[in-house]
Specification:
The chain has 660 residues and is an alpha+beta fold. The chain contains 24 helices and 15 strands. The strands form 5 sheets. The protein has a 5-stranded mixed β-sheet, sandwiched between helices. Strands 1-2-6-5 form a 4-stranded antiparallel β-sheet, with no helix packed on it. The protein is flat, with a radius of gyration of 40 Å. Keywords: Repeat, TPR repeat.
């Protein structure tokens, strides 16, 4: 505030694209060295220019001689006559600009500079012309008096280079050296300048270290805090960036760039009310584009909360996505609302995945902790949703801890209190049911699980546990019903699928049992118990259809054939036999053999055999095998299929086709 009590306008006028950039001191175009238009060769012009960063003025004279760049990197101009006196006209430094000059009464020691632009980095764009100055000039390093890129006036005379401090621009070769020097330096402005160079290159970690050093040298500088927030944002550490902006505003409450940067961060976090306060801290928005973004985020978040309140989870999911696209791309509450919506739509796998991807703001800014979303604080809502996910996955102890944490953060929320009570009671019911089941008191155990289901009617774990009780009580139909409910809420939950398959087998509903066991084989391809259960169900199904099933035994390994007699016996086995002809030296055979082994495990009712035609050439000749790998399929002694160099997909399709 000004002494008169009126708000002091911000020191910065920003555009949307500049919000998250550090505070740079750009080149003052009123500098004594300004862009000059080239003149025709031979034409000499004298111009007097005043500097915004210096009170003195100089006389610039254009010479016809082109500049010469020395090996050390400095720029020297030619001269029309030999320099008089003891001055060293050829003295050069890599970070300053010097020249030879023509002696005169008014300009005893003039330097020659190339015409062109002096960039903020300190580099000079040559245009092929030179200019003469009355005193030695060097590029300023950026201080409280002289901005980076300004001209620092030398001390006159003929001593050559001014003793003023100069710094080489950061380049690909010297960047690392300059960075190290800056970290150890004692000039806060110079450290910040190198930090800005690192930020421009996208080296946010290095920039952050330099801004830390600048803050250590000058703790009360708000701009350094604001720059540190920009580097933290680049590193994805949004929570810390918010705290840095708040610290910058504590140091300078009227710092416009910090207000706007903080507003942008708060919009990304979905904190629209706080974001509006900083965006309009002077009574009107400092950036209309940011205001438009804020209003779009606010609209979709409001619709999302309304949809959640009435249980329209599909609409809530759509509004969450719309709010994220509008600009709230780092909002924890929106991320958790998406998780909750997927959970309520019984898409547990997707909910788990989105829970891992949800934005994590650590530490959670104190200024945002009391912001409310759908009736509860944003931080409490995160734990509220986690508790529901943990309970759905059967991790009841974790669910209780998450619900307790949500209650500690927001003890006033009725929704949080209700969830905490529900989670606690369901966890107790599950523990009591497990204890009763271990004691073989299956009826009482089923009642305990039923009590938990009354409180949480969508819990697949409790349905599966109660199905186990019905199975032990030989109540197969009830067991199947509870397994169906569990699979409804968690379609990829293998325990109820296994229990349902076993119940179908007990009821001799072999087709349904085979279907469930085949689904389990896809989920658990290396489970021998499931493979054997599938084999016996397939045999029983064949028997129920009146098919011949003589000498069918559960295998599990590919049988290697060593003689023609063994081969003939294998071909005449009842059922389906798959014979793989190969050689040990063939690369394709080596690739196919492990896949044949896996098929043998997955289709235990089929006989799998392997013939090495190098070891048994008589079998290869009798079967007319000329190319390996070759696979032949026999059914009840008759060849039904021959595949030369089969792909894995074609081979499995053929095996599955003839096994049914």
């Amino acid at each position: 505030m000004s002494p008169s009590g009126k708000p002091v306008p911000p020191r910065d006028s920003l555009t949307t694209s500049e919000i998250n950039k550090p505070d740079f001191r750009e080149l003052d175009l009123g500098s004594p060295v300004s862009p000059l238009r080239s003149q025709p060769r031979g034409l000499t012009t004298t111009t007097t220019t005043s500097s915004s960063s210096s009170s003195s003025s100089g006389s610039l004279t254009r010479q016809q001689h082109p500049p010469v760049i020395s090996r050390s990197g400095s720029v020297r101009g030619g001269s029309s006559s030999t320099q008089s006196g003891s001055s060293s006209g050829n003295q050069t430094r890599s970070d300053s600009v010097t020249s030879n000059s023509t002696s005169s009464a008014t300009s005893p020691s003039s330097n020659v500079l190339p015409t062109g632009n002096i960039c903020p980095s300190g580099k000079i764009q040559l245009t092929g012309m030179t200019q003469s100055r009355s005193r030695s000039d060097v590029l300023g390093s950026g201080t409280g008096t002289y901005g980076h890129g300004s001209i620092m006036r030398g001390g006159g005379g003929s001593s050559g280079v001014s003793p003023a401090k100069t710094v080489a621009p950061v380049t690909s070769r010297s960047g690392e050296t300059v960075w190290k020097k800056a970290v150890l330096g004692s000039d806060a402005e110079e450290v910040k300048r190198v930090g800005n160079e690192m930020y421009r290159k996208g080296l946010f970690g290095e920039a952050l270290k330099l801004y830390d050093r600048a803050i250590a040298l000058s703790p009360a500088n708000a701009a350094y805090r604001s720059n540190r927030a920009a580097a933290l944002t680049g590193l994805g550490r949004v929570g810390e960036a918010v705290k840095e902006c708040e610290e910058a505003l504590r140091l300078d409450p009227n710092y416009g760039r910090a207000h706007q940067r903080l507003a942008s961060l708060l919009i990304r976090l979905g904190q629209v009310d706080s974001g509006r306060k900083h965006l309009c801290f002077l009574g009107k928005p400092s950036d209309p584009m940011e205001l438009q973004k804020l209003e779009a985020v606010e609209k979709h978040m409001s619709k999302c909360a309304d949809a959640r309140r009435v249980g329209d989870w599909k609409a809530a999911l759509m509004e969450v996505d719309a709010a994220i696209v509008s600009g709230a791309d780092f909002s924890p509450q929106l991320g958790m609302c998406k998780v909750e919506a997927l959970l309520k739509l019984h898409r547990l796998d997707a909910a788990q995945s989105k829970l891992l991807e949800a934005p994590k703001v650590e530490p959670f800014p104190a200024s945002c902790s009391q912001t409310r979303f759908s009736g509860m604080s944003c931080e409490a809502y995160t734990y509220y949703v986690k508790a529901q996910v943990e309970m759905a996955l059967g991790r009841f102890e974790n669910a209780v801890m998450a619900a307790d944490k949500a209650s500690q953060i927001d003890p006033r929320s009725n929704e949080v209190a209700t969830l905490q009570n529900t989670v606690t009671l369901v966890a107790r019911a599950r523990v009591r049911g497990n204890d009763l089941y271990k004691s073989e008191r299956y009826t009482e155990a089923s009642s305990a699980y039923a009590e938990g289901l009354r409180l949480d009617p969508c819990n697949a774990i409790l349905y599966c546990n109660r199905a186990a009780c019905w199975f032990k009580l030989r109540m197969w139909e009830r067991s199947i019903e509870d397994c169906n409910q569990a699979l409804r809420f968690q379609p990829r939950y293998t325990k109820p699928l296994l229990r349902r398959a076993a119940s179908y087998s007990k009821m001799e509903r072999w087709a349904a049992a085979v279907s469930d066991y085949e689904a389990l084989r896809k989920e658990l391809p290396h489970d021998k118990e499931v493979a054997e259960s599938l084999f016996h169900a397939q045999v029983a199904l064949k028997k129920s259809r009146g098919e011949e099933v003589l000498n069918m035994e559960f295998g599990g390994e590919v049988e290697e054939v060593y003689s023609r007699e063994q081969f003939k016996a294998a071909m005449n086995l009842p059922g389906v036999s798959v014979i793989h002809f190969s050689t040990a030296s063939d690369h394709q055979c080596k690739q196919l053999s492990p896949f044949v082994d896996s098929l043998c495990t997955r289709y235990p009712s089929i006989h799998f055999l392997k013939v090495d035609i190098d070891k048994c050439p008589s079998i290869g000749n009798a079967e007319n095998v000329r190319v390996v790998p070759t696979v032949k399929i026999y059914k009840n002694g008759t060849r039904v299929k021959e595949i030369v160099c089969p792909s894995k997909e074609v081979l499995e399709y053929s095996v599955r086709h003839y096994s049914s």
